[in-house]
Amino acid sequence: MCGVTGYLGQRAAAPILLDSLKRLEYRGYDSCGLVVLNDGGVALRRSVEPLDRFRTVILSENLPGTVGLAHTRWATHGVADALNAHPHSSCDGTILAVHNGVLENGDELRATLIRQGHRFTSDTDSETIPHLVEQSLREGQTMDAAFAALPRRLVGSYAVLLVHAKTDAIYALRRDSPLVIGVGDNEYFPASDIPSFLPLTSRVVYITQDEPLVIDRTGIHRIRQHSPAGGREPLDRLPVILDQNVTSLSKDSFEHYMLKEILEQASTLERLIEVPPEPLAKARALLQKASSIKLIGAGTSYHACLFGEHAFGVGAGLDVEACVSSEFEFRASLLRPGAVVVALSQSGETADTIHAVRSAQGRGAKVISVTNSEMSTLAQMSDLVIPLRSGPELAVAATKSYTSQLAVLLLLDQELAPWAVTDVRSLWKARDSILNLTSTAARAHIAELAHELAVRPEVFLMGRGPHYVTALEAALKLKEVAGLRAEAFHGGEMKHGPLALIEEGAPVVMFYDRAGMTRTEIAASELIARGALVFTVGEQRLRSSHLHVRADDAGKATPIPQIIPLQLLSYEIAKIRGRDPDHPRNLAKSVTVI
Ligand code: G6P
Question: What is the pLDDT of residue 420?
């Protein structure tokens, strides 16, 4: 949710910042802006135009200056317009800041600052930050002291980068919002996330909570907050060397990240099966002792939790329940002593999930996180981290991270009940089935189906047991990516209400495995009798299928291949309907606000 980035080095800052913004666009894309410092002067540019257009305009200006900040926004306070776009500045225009997060005391701070004579030009909570620093300077504090006072003044979450026109430096601070610093040769790339600078350096310094830092030509320094003498000390933390490579961030020859990421799933799955994440064994020890297990996640990750409820821990007789992160507070009081929380999150930065985990920890629960980002806030809070190792997922809609989450749950299940020996075998079958489903012929067939569905006002999806989870996840993809009204139902529930919605030509997509064919065939006849058009995803075609996509059974792992055609379908429909599959309207990949 919002991406912040900065540059301090020897090169012109503007082109580097613009490229970084492009790589952070998945975090929000309502508006964007940048500031470049040059000899005490400030070039501030903000826009609601798409980033590509903004980039062309700024590049044509050839802005001089080797220090700057930039921001891509997902609006929380105030509409998406140029005035609300970041960077925000102080009254005198010399202090500029970019912010990701939500300031809970933003209104209060704004009222106090207005009483002190400050003028605001936006509706954002973020604008209070440069004014707060300006106020401290007016009161005679040094720039370092003014910045280091922020954690005492701000309530809420923030990743802040701030510059002063007369200071050749970037100030950085975070609480509950991600912020890291890429370190090159005498150049620094502070940013919300690693992809922002990955093509430029693979060395990264992680920033801890409420640690005010200043980056200048001599390095990264920590500002002493509590010493009366003030001052700075060099940050003694060594950069971590990343093993991700630049190619994993490129679109290669694909038109969109979403397609690239869908097609990567046979290999992400294969990697997990061949080299299972090491912490699985440690997780077994924790889970076997658990009085109960709560699987927590948001969005697609919640759907993975629902799959877990069906597929995970059953053989070992464990009490497993899935909870939506944002709803966890209503269940938290039921947490028994000895409970273990398994938090699923691609980004590891979803505020709702972090909030739920914190509340579970407050009640004594141990936490295992399953995440694609081993250095994320969630990972750092957890007792144990199981990496998804899917590689960067940059399209906003989750695809490969979902199937990796299902696979990790099955690998974990195998750890708990090794006598079953079915999970790993079923994962290999799932891999083979994905290969078939992503073949050129299969994709052409799905494109045909896309043309049929793209013109419908709504789509219904049905499944029983774990296949209901696939229906839910497929409906989410159709909504967010294709912009279609899509609703999922439990197979057996159609006759208890939803049938009233079925009229002539209503499309219903049904997911099933071999064992569930007979029941699905009955449900399909009931639907067809009322005019529905039945589309099917399973190993064998139903007698009544209007159009069928063959997805071979893979035992317990069947939901892994079965979601692939619906991911592809959502992608194709988005294109037919003129939507950008990588950037669905109003959404962001990493939702760091509650
Ligand atoms: C956002 C994204 C979804 C994602 C959800 C949870 O809403 O748009 O695609 O499933 O966050 O994200 P997480 O990183 O916690 O898995």
Answer: 67
